[in-house]
Amino acid sequence: MLKFLGTRAVASAISLVGLVLLVFFLSRLTGDPTGLYLPLDASEEARNQFREIHGLNDPIFIQFLNYLGDLIRLDFGESIRRSEPAIDVVMRGFGWTLQLAAVTMSLVVVCAVIVGSLAAFHVGGVFDRIATFFSLIGASAPDFWIAIVAIVIFSVNLGWVPTSGTGTVWHWILPVSVLFIRPFGLILQIVRGSMITALSSAYVKTARAKGIKNRTIIFVHALRNALLPVITIIGDQAAALLNGAVVVESIFGFPGVGKLMIDSILQRDFTVVMAAILVTATAIFVMNLLIDILYSILDPRIRY
Amino acid sequence: MTDPTLHTPILPDVPEAPNPVTQMLRMLWNDKFAFVSVVILLIILVCAITGPLWLEDIATKQNLRGRNAPPFDFSTSWPYWLGGDALGRPLLARIIVAAQNTIFVAAGAVFFSLTIGTVLGLIAGYTSRIISQVIMRLADIVMSFPSLLLAVIVLYTLDSSVFNLVIVLAITRIPVYLRTARAETLEVRERMFVQAARVMGASNGRIIFRHILPIVFPTLVTIATLDFAFVMLAESALSFLGIGIQPPEITWGLMVSQGRPYLTSAWWLSFWPGIAIILTTLSLNLVSHWLRTALDPAQRWRLENVRKKNG
Amino acid sequence: MGERLLEVRNLSVDFHTSHGTVHAVRDVSWHLERGETLAILGESGSGKSVSASAILNLIDMPPGEITSGQIVFEGRDLLTMLPEERRQLNGHRIAMIFQDPLSHLNPVYSIGFQIAEAMTAHGVNKGQTRARTIELLKRVGIPNADTKVDAYPHQFSGGQRQRIMIAMALALKPDILIADEPTTALDVTVQAEILALLEELQTETGMGLLLITHDLGVVAEVADRVVVMNSGEIVETGSASDVYHNPQHPYTQQLIAAIPGNGQMASQLAQTTPMLEIKGLSKHYGAFIALEDANLTVLPAESVAIVGESGSGKSTLAKTILRLEDATAGEALFEGRDLVKMAPKELFKMRRDVQMVFQDPTQSLNPRMSIYDIISEAFVIHPEILDKQHWKARVCELLEQVGLKADHMYRHPHQFSGGQRQRIAIARALALEPKLIVCDEAVSALDVSIQAQVLALLTRLQNELGLSYLFIAHDLLLVRDFAHRVIVMQNGKIVEQGPVDQIFDAPREPYTRNLIAASLSPDPTIQAARREALIALQGERV
Lengths: 304, 311, 542
Fold this sequence. Notes:
Chain A is mostly helical.
């Protein structure tokens, strides 16, 4: 197990370096990097000074090593717009996003697993049809559209909840609800499909021959087997949320890492964009590792 | 010695199997949701191909009297039935014209990612460990990065043209097909008919394209249907954020974004293009859902059995 | 008549499939008494398992539908009882064990949990189950039961898993145990042990045992009475010995005639230059030795059988010869040239001479290719065999040679029965005009009557075309009528080889003798004698 975790950590590190390489060369390939780091209206003098300070006149290989060296010391540079270290800005946003993702995903997983399991038990029944139909609609709806329609209805017309901010529980209701819909639809589909397979398997037949109650068959025998493919999709969806629900955060003015990233892009604050990319990527690698561990807990056949 | 499983009793006489095309059509007819979806998708496809040819002028002509004209005013000409936008252009005509960009970007991205992902997946599944590892690590890098965000970064550093958008979205979706194709290949290559082909002296190319690909392909097509919807949503979101398609080109996502300032006064500007997106993605999801059942021999009877109840 | 433990009356079950409605069983009636063993004998598709599934409410409805009949247990019709009442009977009063225990045990729970659950589901206090579970595991012969109780199904061998299934089924001392092909996937020696265990437990508890099987040998070994089924109907009922010695129905007669092991044994061929000569062939996977120092020869037009239980290395031997695996050491000389070290180009030519027929014809034919495509692929890969204009005629000829019709060639594999598919696989091998065909368990997946037909086909082709066979099998009786020479393997090594009559009539090695003794004869009288011999052998070993 430890050996496996070690191998995975190394593989993740390699992938991270790959990512850094990608971002680094993207930022250099597009021409003059000062265009990315400095405001568009920066003077030629300022640009020259910037090149001098940051060694942009050095050979590209040296530049990359310097860049990597800075990263290892977690030095992403100063945010140009906010005049504080980029990493601090990003970590603040990431904290908000982490909370939002955790709340949303917990709700999604609980609801999707229960509804999906029950739908799979009577395939083609009324409950299954309703659940399937709504999950398909959920998986089909563009979140930005739902968000603005929800704001018009619930905030503007009915005045039930505030349109943006994070102050109270009321502020969280709309963003969480909107973010809930798509992952719920997708995960419900996977749970249902996976449960149908599990419920038609031989060991369920054995359980029925043993006289086990239906509830136990569904939630003990079939579910644990069915969860293995489900966990993968939960991971994917959680990753999407962790990276900042870009659209929803910016519509609701939620100060998470997604909104930060879009704002920084529009304000051309490249150091913050870079820091945000690497922080969220690291978080996703950690989460993938957790998922691998969860796999081996759920299925004793998986031993690393 | 094969046990007759309860689900599929083996018949003493194996009858002639029906023609696969008519069989698929019959199964489609038996699932009314999927049938309607296919009809809707065909209509959208026709709009996407022919729309700009005959509606381009109507859709771009500004009309001050029709500014934010409300929908369902049937006294006007039909392109205004869904209302007019902030510059008085007819919404229905604009939605039909915008279908082309929206569908083209999604179709292009799905086509490239499906092709490249499948080929890489087959290679990763069938060749040596080292090549496989390199391909999988590359996929990890792309996967570690939700597609929307990667697109944001690349479109930030490059220009946001239709072509770049297609390429970026394609790259972000490659791992989906790659992983599936690899996993299925690893399983199929151990099947006995592949071994039999090797014993006959078949080349690797022949085994991959003649024996493995036909088995793996239906699964990939099912995923592609679902992914088409996903890519469409991603494109819409990017255009909504202002880093996807740029005006004067239009897509449905961009139309939603353009209507946003008028939400409280003229909700229909954002509402209708959103409905167009939902209708398309929902249809795609329903078709994919149906495909999954239709292509799974163990589930198929659910679609084939409908007529049994009356006779 | 109130004595009868279980009675099935006029049961009919339909399945609605894509090909129309299938009458899985029609008007089937049988009964089971306390302490009795009833066998339901039938080939695949005979509907032999269906009534058992109906007893335990395991038929999925839809697609299944019970159209008529009663299942009476203790005076009550199960089919009219409430689902909850039936659940309380399942596992408590009526229990079942299945073929393929690996897939029938839940892979993610420990065996202890699964056995205990069979008790708690019927109201046994949780606190008492662990001790009872360990006791049960000990009773069915699981070593170190105290610690193994927390292990998972994949950590046991096939035979042990079936023992665990038995422990689970017997946890509440049911009145009836239904065993659906309980020993089919197991080695013969393990099969003998499991059957002996079932008999012992039956004597101990006095339960009625319903045994569903395709194997007349199993019937002869344990059954008191037998019900023979064919195409969903009962064709014959009687005591095991009556049905074997005096079958009334033509189907039963045909079934018994098809059983291998009663024919003339082949005489040896005159010694000539061997076609295939294997010297010191070994295959190691890391530290695991799959095959060690194998030496054997195959003469032209000779059938050499390789017999062994699972893990004996017989399939590894075949794969190494065909270069599906690379050998670790040794050589395999085919007409003087070494297959093991052959360069790819030469190997490609050699593929025409050495062909293979695989175990499961369902899997060895590409489901998406037509029969024409499957057979003519040989000519696509080796274009020098035949010009394209003659392909069709040649495919027709090959199909007729293996006993199929030429107009079958545009059909797909799923439209054929198992036996027909294996004929197609043989036609595919013949298309390359090989000199040697390696048959890896080529008839093991087929029904007994089909097995006989395919073996007859192989023999005929040998006489017509002068083919040699390397015939790999786990079933000793099967090779008795077919092979010229027999090689017995165990744990990756050849333990004995010799002419077929010598192996069967005067085996030298204890392992061979044990193997022969453990294989079941369909004749209840002979089987009784065999069992004595086996017990004596085991006594000898102890």
